[in-house]
Automatic annotation (TrEMBL):
<dbReference type="GO" id="GO:0006952">
    <property type="term" value="P:defense response"/>
</dbReference>
<comment type="similarity">
    <text>Belongs to the polygalacturonase-inhibiting protein family.</text>
</comment>
<feature type="domain" description="Leucine-rich repeat-containing N-terminal plant-type">
    <location>
        <begin position="31"/>
        <end position="70"/>
    </location>
</feature>
<keyword id="KW-0134">Cell wall</keyword>
<keyword id="KW-1015">Disulfide bond</keyword>
<keyword id="KW-0611">Plant defense</keyword>
<protein>
    <recommendedName>
        <fullName>Leucine-rich repeat-containing N-terminal plant-type domain-containing protein</fullName>
    </recommendedName>
</protein>
<feature type="signal peptide">
    <location>
        <begin position="1"/>
        <end position="26"/>
    </location>
</feature>
<dbReference type="InterPro" id="IPR032675">
    <property type="entry name" value="LRR_dom_sf"/>
</dbReference>
<keyword id="KW-0677">Repeat</keyword>
<dbReference type="InterPro" id="IPR001611">
    <property type="entry name" value="Leu-rich_rpt"/>
</dbReference>
<dbReference type="Pfam" id="PF08263">
    <property type="entry name" value="LRRNT_2"/>
</dbReference>
<dbReference type="GO" id="GO:0016020">
    <property type="term" value="C:membrane"/>
</dbReference>
<keyword id="KW-0964">Secreted</keyword>
<dbReference type="InterPro" id="IPR051848">
    <property type="entry name" value="PGIP"/>
</dbReference>
<keyword id="KW-0472">Membrane</keyword>
<dbReference type="Pfam" id="PF00560">
    <property type="entry name" value="LRR_1"/>
</dbReference>
Length: 341
């Protein structure tokens, strides 16, 4: 009798294993991460567009909307890309997202009903390289804890309702390439630290915010291919943003209160687009503008510039650079404006 009990004890796990569905045994999705994802779905308000997120299926298959997993064991959820979800009403950014610690990319966008704040716990995502949270209604400050995610290369927080100051520590990210934070309500000055971004930085856009104060002299060290600080309330000497040796291709400073002598500015040879309209820039346009061989767009209108427009290069007869590019200045003259007196 005792021997029968021993045999039964060893056979029971085998029998149970046989009863388990082969699909469950072969499932790549971590039970822990599946549980988190289903919690995220619930926190989103169970939108119909996430009906594929089903407890009975493998989350590491193409069946789960917006989910990608690593291709080697141990399988982990590496990417979430969700956009235009049919949220049932205003819902907060799901806090459970920040428990998916192996995420490499988090992309959530085009959801006007998504609100709430980016929590400090975002720093739990230590492997994150790409963070896209744009075109939503999330609010509050950009957390300083973003700077703790040393793997970040791309950040897009544009078109939200973010407010408060720029994070001072963001330039400490060693591999950052792209930062979009335009079309928010970010206020206060640009920190001095923004002159010390890593050389990997390619794009920095902070346009259409409420930034104010003087351009720090430390921004002389800021060198990005695309820089957009337009339509804020910035003042002071914007000439520090230029330099003959900088890699800048596009620079947009329009719609501020910047005041400096443009005649003393040295432009990098790679500039393709230069928009300085609606400021308080003065002086004579430098001859160096005629040497910009890649220039395709230029606008210095609505400033306090004076003197003859340099002749040559792409400053005359190169559409769309025309009279409107130089309009409403103190006393600019010469083609494509009327002749100097």
């Amino acid at each position: 009798m005792a021997s029968t009990s021993i045999i039964s004890m060893f056979l029971l796990p085998v029998i149970l294993l046989i009863w388990v569905s082969p699909a469950v045994l072969s499932e790549k999705c971590s039970p822990h991460e599946k549980k988190i994802l289903l919690q995220v779905k619930q926190e989103f308000g169970n939108p119909s567009m996430l009906s594929s997120w089903n407890a009975s299926t493998d989350c590491c298959t193409s069946a789960w909307e917006g989910i990608e997993c690593t291709t080697e064991k141990p399988y982990r959820v590496s990417q979430i890309e969700l956009h235009g979800l049919d949220l049932p009403g205003p819902v907060d950014l799901p806090p459970s997202l920040f428990n998916l610690v192996d995420l490499d990319e988090l992309l959530i966008f085009e959801m006007p009903n998504l609100k709430g704040q980016i929590p400090p716990q975002i720093s739990n995502l230590k492997k994150l390289t790409v963070l896209y949270l744009f075109s939503t209604n999330i609010s509050g400050p950009i957390p300083e804890s973003l700077a703790q995610i040393k793997t970040l290369t791309n950040i897009n927080l544009a078109g939200n309702n973010l407010s408060g100051p720029l994070p001072h520590l963001l330039p400490s990210l060693p591999s950052i390439r792209v930062i979009f934070a335009d079309e928010n309500r970010i206020s206060g000055p640009i920190p001095d630290s923004y002159g010390s971004f890593a050389s990997s930085l390619v794009t920095l856009t902070l346009s259409h915010n409420m930034l104010s104060g003087k351009i720090p002299a430390a921004l002389k060290g800021l060198d990005a291919e695309l820089l957009d600080l337009s339509w804020n309330k910035l003042e002071g000497d914007g000439s520090v943003l230029f330099g003959a040796e900088k890699k800048t291709e596009e620079i947009t400073l329009a719609g501020n209160m910047l005041s400096f002598d443009i005649g003393k500015v040295e432009f990098g040879r790679n500039i393709t687009r230069l928009n300085l309209k609606h400021n308080r820039i003065y002086g004579k346009l430098p001859e160096g503008l005629t040497k910009l061989q890649h220039l395709t767009r230029l606008n210095v209108s609505y400033n306090q510039l004076c003197g003859p427009i340099p002749q040559g290069g792409r400053l005359q007869g190169y559409f769309p650079i025309d009279a409107s590019s130089f309009a409403s200045n103190k006393c600019l003259c010469g083609p494509p404006l009327p002749p100097c007196k």
